[in-house]
Amino acid sequence: MAFPPANHTSLLDFSQPAPPPPIVSFQPPPMEALSRYDRSRLPTDQYYNIPQTFRDAMIVRQQVFVQEQRVPMHYEYDEDDPRSAHWVLYSQTAAALIPVGTIRLVPFPHPAHPVSGGVYVDGRLVAVNPVSAYPPPTGNSVPADRSTTYHNYNSNSNGSEPYLKLGRLAIVPSHRGRRLAGVLINAAIDWAVRNSAYFNHEHGPEWKGLVLIHAQKSAVRVWRYAGFIEDEGMGSWWEEGMEHVGMYRRVNVDVEEEVRAAAPPLSAGG
Questions:
Q1: The total number of structural domains that make up the chain
Q2: Where is region (Disordered) located (predicted)?
Q3: Considering the domain boundaries, does residue 213 fall inside one?
Q4: N- or C-end of the chain: fewer Cβ atoms within 10 A?
Q5: What does the pLDDT look like over 96-136, one tens digit per residue?
Q6: How big is the CA angle at 157 (ends 256 and 193), to the nearest 5 degrees?
Q7: 244: containing domain
Q8: CA-CA distance, 139 to 133, in Å (whole number)?
C-alpha cells in the first residue's frame, strides 16, 4: 500500500498558540484601607473592603512564602505593607485573571540595617550568631544603624542617603523559568523612576536612585540578573530561618550625583 505524500505543514496543526502576555496591576500604598487586615486569616478570608490587588498579592505570598517556604502565616503581613506600593502579575486564561507573581516597594525611612549574623523572627532580632562582630541584643534594645559598602550611615545628622527597598518578590511555582521576576522588578523600578518625588518628605532628603533588596541567598542570581550588586559590608543574616544578604542597585533619576569617595563605585542601571 502506498503511503500518502508527507505533509510537513501538518506539524503546525499540533502547535499551541502563544499564551497572552502577563498583565501587571499596580496598587498604590493602601494605607488605612488595610486597617482591618487580619494577618491570622487567609487572604481569601479578609474583609470585603481590602483592595483586591493587595488581596491578590497576599494570595501569591501565601502560596510561595507560607505554603512553600513554611513561613508562619501571621508573620507574612507586616507593618510595611500599608505604606508600600505593590504590583501583582496575572496570568490570563479564558475565564479569569490568575495572580501568579508579586513585588512591593517600601519607602524610606527604614529601620537599621540587619545585624550581620543576626537571627530575625517577625522582623525582630532574637539572637546573634556567635561569630558576629555585633553583641546579642539585651532586653528590648534596638541595634544602632551602621555603614555598609554602598550605604554610608551618618549618626550626627540627616546625611544618610535615603533608599527605596524592594521586597516580597514571589512567583508561583507553575510560572517560574519565564523571566517573570524581571517583569515585576522592572515595573517597580520604572514606576519609581517616573515618580521619583512620590516618597520624598517636605523637609527631608530626596531619593536619588538608590534601591536595596534583602535577598534570600537562593535568589541572589535573580537579583544580579536585574542589575543588583551584593553589599559585602552588610554581611548576612537570617529571616524566618532563611539566610539573606543585602544587594543594591542605583538607577538614574536624572539628578546630579554626589561625591561618594568612601564606597566602591556602584554602577547605574535602569
A1: 1
A2: 1-27
A3: yes
A4: N
A5: 899 999 999 999 989 989 999 999 999 999 998 755 554 45
A6: 35
A7: 18-255+262-269
A8: 19
